Amino acid sequence: MHLLLRTLCQPGRKQPCKDGGAEVSITHSHLHNINRSDSCVYQINFIIIFNRQGKVRLTRWYQYMTDKQKASLSQDVVTQILARKRGMCNILELEGRREARGKAIYKRYASLFFCFGIDWNDNELSGLEVLHKYVECLDQYFGNVCELDIIYNYSAAYQVMDEMLLGGHAQETNKKIVVKHCKGFDKLEESDSIVHNLRASNIA
User: Is the full-model pTM beyond 0.85?
Assistant: First the structure.
């Protein structure tokens, strides 16, 4: 259906009205509205990963904030989520904050909480699906991922995140492709380190 809309609604193409009225010219603004309507999550504002003791293990910010605002928001979100009971919903409204307007969605996996910040108009369930996809990619990359993997291999966790998300927007949700690319980067890095060591040994 969305492919049909994009095919028919091309810029400059005129569409006749059903009631026999004047033809309507499709503009780029119309296409922008169509593209927005076909996406459930438009923007992820921030990602915070923390454990049950409230220690933040990983963060990523897709909107500008000062270091003080980031620390304040992280502490506020972590405190509120840890205070919530298991039976409560996974959606937290961020009220009374100028630096972060919208909602925080979260889910617990073993000892870690994964939290995404999204806008008011975004679909919470779709955001939770993207969050779950990220956890699945981590699990497949590390092999039954745990908190220690993220602590000692945080660069790999960031690499998986950057492979999935671009500027806060989901660009790749196929975990096989994400993990394949990340493993390929690891092989390139390993080969570069081998070449560097060989050159260093020859110089010595």
Answer: no
User: Distance between CA atoms of 152 and 33, rounded to whole angstroms?
Assistant: 43
Of 144, 134, 126, the C-alpha closest to 179 is 134
Instruction: Fill in the DSSP letter of residue 144.
Output: S
pLDDT, tens digit, 9 for 90 and up, residues 38-89? 445 568 999 999 999 999 999 999 988 899 999 999 999 999 999 998 889 9
Angle at alpha carbon of residue 54, lines to 78 and 107, rounded to 5°: 60
Three-state DSSP class for 141? Answer: helix
Question: Around Cβ 59, how many Cβ atoms within 10 Å?
Answer: 15
Contact call for residues 92 and 124 (beta carbons, < 8 A): no
Query: How would you classify residue 17: left for phi > 0, otherwise alpha for psi between -120 and 50, otherwise beta?
Result: beta
Query: Which DSSP category does 123 fall into?
Result: -
Please report the beta strands in 24-151, taking only residues with DSSP state E, as ranges in sequence order. Answer: 24-25, 44-51, 56-61, 91-94, 102-109, 112-118
